[in-house]
């Protein structure tokens, strides 16, 4: 089964045909996004580099998971919950879960659980899902 990863502009960026290929494809896409983001910041004269990591307050994993879960299932009453794809899990892990300022203190199980809910958010809402999660976590300060 083929998987297409969207660059975010509506154009397919890469396609894989198997789990290992999909994971490698997603890793390449993430690396290209990160390279573009760093280039964008560093290429602006007089502008400091953006701080590293996801800009949300430190929090216990259970609290972040609860917020992500609530947002991911919002509006799904009586309907089946989406199952995250391998590509969405990789995106969630690399760009959100592992970038949380408290991630180093969390267990692998906690990071995996959060990545699953973030992947569902991304599947359902795209980048807006991450923005919703970021806003909800920032509001908990």
Structure notes:
This protein has a two-stranded antiparallel sheet. The radius of gyration is 16 Å and the shape is globular. It has 141 residues and is mostly helical. It has five helices and two strands, in the order E-E-H-H-H-H-H. It starts with a strand and ends with a helix.
Main features:
single chain, 141 residues, mainly alpha, two-stranded antiparallel sheet, 55% helix, 6% strand, disordered N terminus
What's the count of strands?
2
Tally the helices. 5
Structural class: mainly alpha
Elements, N to C (H/E):
EEHHHHH
Lateral strand order in the biggest sheet:
1-2
Share of β-strand residues: 5-15%
Computed Rg:
16 Å
User: Mean pLDDT, nearest integer?
Assistant: 76
Largest sheet: 2 strands, antiparallel
Helix content: 40-55%
What's the SSE blueprint?
Elements: E1 3-6, E2 12-16, H1 19-42, H2 61-73, H3 86-95, H4 108-125, H5 127-138
Antiparallel strand pairs: 1-2
Helix pairs in contact: 1-3, 2-4, 2-5, 3-4, 4-5
Give a concise summary.
This protein is mainly alpha-helical and 141 residues long. The chain contains five helices and two strands. A two-stranded antiparallel sheet has the order 1-2.
């Amino acid at each position: 089964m083929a998987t297409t990863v969207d660059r975010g502009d509506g154009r397919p960026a890469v396609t894989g045909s198997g789990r290992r290929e999909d994971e490698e494809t997603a890793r390449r896409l993430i690396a290209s996004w990160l390279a573009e983001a760093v280039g964008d910041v560093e290429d602006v004269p007089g502008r400091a580099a953006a701080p590293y990591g996801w800009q949300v307050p430190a929090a216990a994993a259970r609290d972040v998971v609860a917020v992500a879960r609530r947002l991911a299932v919002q509006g799904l009453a009586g309907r089946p919950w989406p199952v995250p794809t391998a590509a969405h899990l990789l995106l969630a892990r690399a760009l959100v879960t592992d970038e949380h300022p408290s991630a180093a203190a969390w267990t692998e199980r906690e990071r995996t659980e959060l990545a699953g809910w973030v992947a569902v958010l991304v599947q359902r809402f795209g980048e807006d899902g991450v923005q919703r999660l970021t806003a909800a976590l920032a509001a908990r300060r």
